[in-house]
Amino acid sequence: MGLPALEFSDCCLDSPHFRETLKSHEAELDKTNKFIKELIKDGKSLISALKNLSSAKRKFADSLNEFKFQCIGDAETDDEMCIAKSLQEFATVLRNLEDERIRMIENASEVLITPLEKFRKEQIGAAKEAKKKYDKETEKYCGILEKHLNLSSKKKESQLQEADSQVDLVRQHFYEVSLEYVFKVQEVQERKMFEFVEPLLAFLQGLFTFYHHGYELAKDFGDFKTQLTISIQNTRNRFEGTRSEVESLMKKMKENPLEHKTISPYTMEGYLYVQEKRHFGTSWVKHYCTYQRDSKQITMVPFDQKSGGKGGEDESVTLKSCTRRKTDSIEKRFCFDVEAVDRPGLITMQALSEEDRRLWMEAMDGREPVYNSNKDSQSEGTAQLDSIGFSIIRKCIHAVETRGINEQGLYRIVGVNSRVQKLLSVLMDPKTASETETDICAEWEIKTITSALKTYLRMLPGPLMMYQFQRSFIKAAKLENQESRVSEIHSLVHRLPEKNRQMLQLLMNHLANVANNHKQNLMTVANLGVVFGPTLLRPQEETVAAIMDIKFQNIVIEILIENHEKIFNTVPDTPLTNAQLHLSRKKSGDSKPPSCSERPLTLFHAVQSAEKQEQRNSIINSSLESVVSSNANSILNSSSSLQPNMNSSDPDLDVLKPARPNSLPPNPSPTSPLSPSWPMFSAPSSPMPTSSTSSDSSPIRPEEVVHEDSSTPFRKAKALYACKAEHDSELSFTAGTVFDNVHPSQEPGWLEGTLNGKTGLIPENYVEFL
After folding, report:
1. pLDDT digits 0-9 by tens, 273-308
2. What percent of the chain has pLDDT over 90?
């Protein structure tokens, strides 16, 4: 388990947890600093003492072997694991060279000692200076705040306003210093992964050139050296990307910290001064308080920021009421009284400001009026995964693959923004979207087309791989075994909605073609992962922890590109569990797969002319004449029970009425037993089976059977997998079980069938129809 990420939003709260996390990072920096000093000392003695070379090398090797990297986050990438074990690899090499006593390399000081000293002085030294400044500002802010809160409310208004302004300035300065310190600590922790290891690698490379007898050892070390060099470069590239993201987030936090607060499990939290009665009178003790509205629990933790330790035991009470304290009833400002269910008497608390008191009162349902200052910051994208969207992506891909597949820096070099927006406006025009998919003129540069493709994907209302699966994809990328990663991602891809999966398949096939030409365009699979990871798998909330996971987003895209044929063209080995299906059918309609009645063929969705409509009806009527005549009586008798289930999403469609038993309606319902649009049921991840004689205009599907005593098509189906029922309405069965009377249910993604005389629900993608 690595170090926890330092969130910028915690700087504003300055909670005990934040302080403890900051201490762990400071301890890690101190340990790194001490280790670097020791390493430099060992290196100098190695250079200066040729006679003691063997002992110095062993000590140096032991130092390397004992040190372990601590990465930020709960998992490491393959590159980070490679870098983390590099020190142990170096130690092994040095031990093998102990018997080979040859002169010390001439430039060891330049390639090893100087960079380490530079890193220690410039990076770790800067972090120490930032810590001193942070500690000084903490003490200054707490002192001024206590002095300010002790001001009597009876002083002149001008004096109070001046004091408030002074506290606001000091608070803002403290907040900025805190953000800068956290940013510097994060930066040093990341830099050490490559600025610390790279000099050691150069030092070892120099040794090999001077050791004649180490030639064979250098050959054996070559593979790991190549892998480590790539890992260092990848880590450096990821650092550059994440550093800019973290710096951007820090600037946003400076400009408007309230809009970037971390989602907290508590309704309200922060510091309050609580009045406590003592033998010699009353005193005000600083507490870090949290309040949960659902349980009405108030937790008070006595904590002093200056000392960094607790001042007593935690206390929790259940809120009964909250009342604002009048100014003339107490000398302190910003006070309010809390009455608890499980504690006698009133608890008088002092907030840090009038606004802070208002927020606490609002959270506790006090007498202060409730203001809802939350803003809906969700931006709705104009792009959609519709026919226009697929047309745009196909046009861009066709232009790239026919005109610019070998351009260097493909997708990495961005186009001019104004040109990109102009191209998108042309492509998104419904008039031009219906044209051929190769109509992007040659006047548009390839970098403009690639930027338009990426911009359109970013304009979607949500990422292509969806917010709800983002964490699952990241967890899959963190699995240790590559085969497990591919298998888990394979399964997750087939849980995406159909249009998302189709668009992702289209894009991955294209990116695989781009990667196959990497010798010309220099865009390897890893480079494409860096470009498309944040676009296709961006997180819903922008935090430091999310930025640190960008490297795993890139790994997911790499796996999709390298295994695109298997992932998109085959069904996952392990199907969704019954519990997952049960949860999926309880979600909102936006995330549900469409049910049978919601998936009529296009034939009944299009608005047709009177001539085409008449021609279509004549074909259907003639094709179904025999069926209608043989089943007219049963249809007439059962038509009254059909009507509640024959609603269509298309307002232009009519339902089958009992007054017309001997003929088809002009526009049959998609769920009508005589409608040619009743869909075939199959697993969502496999293609829909079709008959060689069936088409959109075919009168009836040969697999469907209409019973004389029923108005609904029934079919037999066989189970592909075993399933254990979790609810009374579901059926339990084993692989190979055959069901009777299988037909669509009211639950999307589920069928209804009969097994051994019992009728119940069956997962749709667990069966195939016979």
Report:
1. 998 876 566 788 889 999 998 888 999 998 877 776
2. 17
Contacts of 107 (CB under 8 A, 6+ apart): 206
Q: What confidence score (pLDDT) does residue 149 get? A: 84
Residue 106: Cβ-neighbour burial (10 angstroms; 0-12, 13-18, 19+)? exposed
Write out pLDDT tens, residues 161-178: 888 888 889 888 888 888
- Over the chain, what is the mean pLDDT? 75
Amino acid at the residue 146: E
CA torsion angle for 185, 191, 197, 203 (degrees, to 10)? -110
Helix axes of 482-493 and 550-562: crossing angle, nearest 10 degrees: 80
Q: Would you say residue 195 has pLDDT above 50?
A: yes
Q: Which pLDDT does position 609 carry in this prediction?
A: 38
To the nearest 10°, the Cα dihedral for 418, 423, 428, 431?
130
The Cα-based distances of 7 to 187, 273, 289, 732 in angstroms read: 13, 25, 20, 47
Q: CA–CA separation, 766 vs 720, rounded Å?
A: 5
Report pLDDT for 695: 34
Q: Which helix (H) or strand (E) holds 476?
A: helix 470-477
Where b means 16+ CB within 10 Å and e means fewer, 680-712 reads bbbbbbeeeeeeeebeeebbbbebbebeeeebb
CB within 8 Å of 252: residues ≥ 6 apart: 259, 260
What string of H, E and C letters represents the secondary structure of 70-118?
CCECCCCCHHHHHHHCHHHHHHHHHHHCCCCCCCCCCCHHHHHHHHHHH
Amino acid letter, 767: V
**pLDDT, tens digit, 9 for 90 and up, residues 307-327:** 766 767 888 999 988 988 877
Helix axes 197-210, 215-255, angle to 10 degrees: 160
Contact 243, 316 (CB under 8 A): no
Give 666's contacts (C-beta < 8 A, 6+ positions apart).
613, 617, 654
d(CA 380, CA 378): 6
Q: If you compute the radius of gyration of the chain from its CA atoms, what whole number of angstroms results?
A: 34
Percent of the chain having pLDDT more than 70? 75
| 691: helix, strand or coil | coil
| pLDDT computed for residue 705 by the predictor | 38
First to last CA, the chain: 51
Q: How far apart are CA 336 and CA 365, in angstroms?
A: 12
Which residues contact residue 584 at a Cβ distance below 8 angstroms, ignoring those fewer than 6 apart?
576, 591, 592, 593, 749
Q: Which helix (H) or strand (E) holds 278?
A: strand 268-278
Q: Is a pLDDT exceeding 60 seen at residue 265?
A: yes
Can you give the pLDDT at residue 669?
34
Asked if 410 and 400 count as a contact pair (C-beta separation under 8 A), the reply is yes
- Least confident range from 30-44, 317-331, 351-365, 575-589: namely 575-589
The encoded tokens of residue 104 equal 């010390």
Q: Checking DSSP bridges between strand 346-350 and strand 268-278, what pairing results, if any?
A: antiparallel
Q: Give the residues across from 733 on adjacent strands.
A: 723
What's the gap between Cα 665 and its chain centre? 49
CA distance 40 to 43: 5
CA 543 distance to own-chain centroid: 10
Quote the tokens at residue 209.
């050139």
Task: Determine how many CB atoms are found less than 10 A away from the CB of residue 120.
Answer: 19
What average pLDDT does the segment 739-761 reach? 84
Please, are residues 79 and 231 in contact by the beta-carbon 8 Å criterion? yes
CB atoms within 10 A of CB 262: 14
